[in-house]
Fold this protein.
Amino acid sequence: MTATLQASDAPLAAAHDLALVDLDGVAYRGHLPIPHAASSLAAARDGGMRLVFVTNNASREPGEVAEQLTGLDIPTRADEVMTAAQACAALLRTRLDPGSRVLVVGGVGLVTAVEAAGLVVVRSADDKPDAVAQGFTPGLAWSDLAEAAYAVAGGAWHVASNLDLSLPTARGFAPGNGALVGAVSAATGVRPDSAGKPSPTMYRLAVERAGAARPLVVGDRLDTDLAGARAGGIPGLHVLTGVSSARDAVLAPPGLRPDFVGADLRALLEAHPVPVSAADGWWECGRRGARVVEGRLELDRGGPHGIDAVRAACAAAWDAVDGGRPLDVESVPTLEA
């Protein structure tokens, strides 16, 4: 399988009718705004692009997420938010009948979503639940994980809202839901199913809800946001304001590669040139170029890197790897967009 950057002669906000926008690392960072996020999303909306904010966070209600975004000058309605809790409940209903019992290990958002799906929330493995729905909440304790383990070991279906190992906070990265799910999995030997990204379930639900024809995923994590886009067959824009760096994009395997890459959400308002193959193995984008020679990535010496240098480096590296040629990862520098 190969995957390359795509061209868009029109700004992405004009070429796509719906943006499926991640939250942490894209719209905001922790509780802080990300520069250009609010103004770029407003301009995209003004141009006719609809927005649905898609988050692996299962602990909060959609209305609470919408309120936070609105407070950051990104006016949002509750029905413009799709959470992993909602996706988790939808996944549960693929195998469980209404009235089935579910042990919820997580926050109020997951409880609400499971109940809204017609399922009965229980709090103990002694209640013989049909499934365990596990999502992140900061107050999760050992006793909660133990209860989940008892239920899963007893035959309950284990469904995780997401498997993110880390969670971005204002102070850095903390253990995410995947790390806590891993504790239950380690105790039981059972691998859970997951509703959150990189599963495309949330994207498909959001596209269906919006009735969109030309959706675009916008995310900062290659292993969740962009992998989910690839899995769902939806074009993906990688913005460099969160977890995955430009260097990560250059080194990404096909299943994690974005279709477009931009420094921040202003990329929605821009056309995206595609790198082209030139003489002597160079891949050129705008006035920047990159190539792989004897396994080492080389960049031209045209000054500061810039986003076109990132695009050219992605094209050169991906072409080499997909063609069976070696790439020394140590030769790939930290790239500044």
Summary: The radius of gyration is 21 Å. The longest strand covers residues 50-55. DSSP finds eleven helices and 19 strands in the chain. The chain has a mean pLDDT of 95.
